[in-house]
């Protein structure tokens, strides 16, 4: 019997939802490992809707659960219905929607608030000593909810121009957490808290390297499950 994993999405599209390649990579690696996956998203309005061709906000209103259903091929549930007791692990792909819809990091940085159902999901898995996997910007959720935890969002300096959001590492440290520098094809395991993180698109890297890095995160999550 494969591990039961919940995957939590934040919409559909890098600029206002979940990063599609990251969500897909996580699903491919989970499938290859024989995991049984169920997908969830909060039933809330998006903070904004971005025209991904122009990179600019529009006047549209969209729902995070409805948009996430595109990635889930319609097979998705409201995050409010997720019961940690029914799963062995939870994984959060990245994308700007994490910082806009799952929390307010995009606006408030380290002073952000975390969506109540996201917070309760993280707390439930952590309390049950079940692993939590996060990639790209998603590790800020753990940094906000679990002070003192260890995460990575890649490097803390913009090495060779590949880590343009390196200042995120400093904000994580200011929250009382330890940022561990890792390359895109690596993940970091906080064994004490069972939190596994990888930087994914926080690094300007070829897609296959991001795919491989997410693979290491998924493997480590499943080892801990």
TrEMBL record:
<dbReference type="InterPro" id="IPR029062">
    <property type="entry name" value="Class_I_gatase-like"/>
</dbReference>
<protein>
    <submittedName>
        <fullName>Glutamine amidotransferase-like class 1 domain-containing protein 3A, mitochondrial</fullName>
    </submittedName>
</protein>
């Amino acid at each position: 019997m494969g591990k039961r994993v919940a995957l939590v999405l934040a919409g559909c599209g890098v600029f206002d939802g979940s990063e599609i390649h990251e969500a897909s990579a996580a699903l491919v690696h989970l499938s290859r490992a024989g995991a049984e996956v169920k997908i969830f998203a909060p039933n809330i309005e998006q903070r904004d809707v971005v025209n991904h061709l122009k990179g600019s906000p529009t006047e549209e209103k969209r729902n995070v659960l409805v948009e996430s259903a595109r990635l889930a091929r319609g097979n998705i549930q409201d995050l409010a219905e997720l019961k940690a007791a029914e799963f062995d692990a939870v994984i959060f792909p990245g994308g700007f929607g994490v910082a806009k819809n799952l929390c307010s990091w995009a606006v408030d940085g380290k002073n952000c608030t975390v969506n109540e159902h996201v917070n309760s999901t993280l707390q439930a898995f952590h309390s049950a000593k079940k692993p939590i996997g996060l990639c790209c910007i998603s590790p800020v959720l753990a940094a906000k909810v679990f002070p003192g935890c260890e995460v990575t969002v890649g490097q803390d300096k913009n090495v060779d121009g590949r880590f343009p959001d390196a200042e995120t590492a400093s904000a994580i440290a200011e929250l009382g957490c330890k940022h561990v520098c890792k390359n895109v094809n690596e993940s970091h395991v906080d064994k004490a808290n069972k939190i596994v993180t990888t930087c994914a698109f926080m690094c300007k890297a070829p897609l296959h390297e991001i795919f491989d890095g997410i693979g290491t995160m998924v493997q480590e999550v499943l080892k801990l499950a």
